[in-house]
């Protein structure tokens, strides 16, 4: 697995020492909040509704068991015994005191973690495919490219003060598991005719008040040109992106206003100057980084696992969990396991210190000590032997982590919303809880099948509600919470932005509204194999709208 | 003018605090000074700005309150939650100690 190198270590340690001094000066009254704020944000420290919040980066969502245990330790020692995993594959601690933050950062640095570049108008943590390296269908391991991007973008002098924050996503196959179309730059790995890896390059995706899907500006970019091409895109953006209006500063606006073809031309023109310069990845560089991600010591196993079939037949709850939370692995005899952080009626993405430790122990015992954080605010164990699934599941049951709902209607993405977030207009978590309770019956949930439900507490859209099959946006009307519903969004390779159904629902009616939407789908679908999104694309908004507003 | 109080976050832990009539800060909105005129509000704002410059409080702002026999009560979900803590974790925030 990736280990950050000497440079990173020295740098992060120095940065902690620097911040410790800055905090001391702030507490002593030598720095004003105006002076201190940019410094704390650079170190991941925000001020939220009830307290400070520390956002810790998890590069491409990969954690060792040691790191996860340390996060559990931090949650217990300095916070209130839990952490919140976000769609950006970060973890947030909601209650740190100012004086403790330098110690927390030092404890993070001890396990090669930090909170740098989780804020500010720089290139943020790259969103990775959580199943990188293990997905049965992947073209190449996307973590290698995420790491190359991370090394290039960390403290890149030219790109520390971009017009706005900048997010890149990489997915390892034609199946998009990193929402590339909703990022400033999306990279989709593919092979050329000779079997060489490269990328389809998308630019200009984004959410917020102006949701736009990224457009492809290059069908195939050979891997050795990755950095020079990214640099060319960033240069064009840095030069032409608007700095006068925060709502128009993202690259999506530039791409839309310039037009795809013209933007692509500008990038190609810039690229022509630098493509064979120092950013060209030298031979051996990709292999060098690949070595960090060398596959673990897999055993040679039969893919068929008769004992698993027996265990499934003998235990319905286990069978249901395997059905929803276990996916194919590229190695025979292994499986990829999603650990749901969405207990029915619970808080999406929250994990207690004990749960973090339990997962770390299970990862050591049954995996290779590796854990991934997914875009859906869940955890994932990438390498579990099929023969160990039953024992693993029992361990998860004991830790309260065996909810069988991955990709289902209760696998809801929700941002912290007005329960924690200073920018929020409405609460998101209680809505998620109400919907989750509504669909808690496992049989019913299974019958409904895969559908995405995302809830954001304001138009910043941290929960990506625009690209959810069922999207919910909290709005404030005179101090009261209302919820606007969109349908038909998608975050996969057929990305789409949802359509607004009509007037918003108040907090007492939003779960009913979602239930109505699901009922229309169940009544209209052509058999159990037609997922929600396909039915929606076939029948459109109208039947849903009619039912939702029938009584009015 | 609607009745108004001043709130901020405390430097040490970011917790919600309210400006009191004696120029101090309290964790409880019930203790907050309520301005009923522009002049009173300006006076309170000046005190709050000084505290912010001195570094003890962060991001002070004025907000409308209801009053019940002179006691301020929060209006709107955001300010209600700020007096309590997260509605989904009633074991945390001010509500935990008060319940
Ligand atoms: S969407 Fe809005 S409310 Fe939710 S976390 Fe983002 S900024 Fe906060």
Automatic annotation (TrEMBL), chain A:
The keyword Transferase does not apply. Residues 119-273, 408-548 form the Nitrite/sulphite reductase 4Fe-4S domain. The keyword Metal-binding applies. The lineage of its organism: Bacteria, Pseudomonadati, Pseudomonadota, Alphaproteobacteria, Rhodospirillales. Residues 52-111, 347-398 form the Nitrite/Sulfite reductase ferredoxin-like domain. GO terms for molecular function: 4 iron, 4 sulfur cluster binding; heme binding; metal ion binding; oxidoreductase activity. Keywords: 4Fe-4S, Heme, Iron, Iron-sulfur, Metal-binding, Oxidoreductase. This is Sulfite reductase.
Automatic annotation (TrEMBL), chain B:
Pfam families: DUF2849. InterPro entries: DUF2849. It comes from the Bacteria. This is DUF2849 domain-containing protein. It comes from Thalassobaculum fulvum.
